[in-house]
Amino acid sequence: MRALSPEELTKQLEAAHRELFDLRFRAATKQLVNHREIPRVKREIARMQTVLREWELSQIDSEE
Q1: What is the CATH code of the structural domain delimited by 6-63?
Q2: Predicted TM-score (pTM) of this structure
Q3: Separation CA 62–CA 64 (nearest Å)
């Protein structure tokens, strides 16, 4: 994940948010078979946000 560019990571983050929305919708309509998918996607989103934040902080440090 750290090897990706920030633009690619942002695209993957948007896709993960869409997937989470879809999973929550399917859970609400009783169509979701594996309920463990929701926490998996949430962790994936958190990891991506962490990597993006680390990248932002490294850019700030390099400017100073």
Answers
A1: 1.10.287.310
A2: 0.89
A3: 6
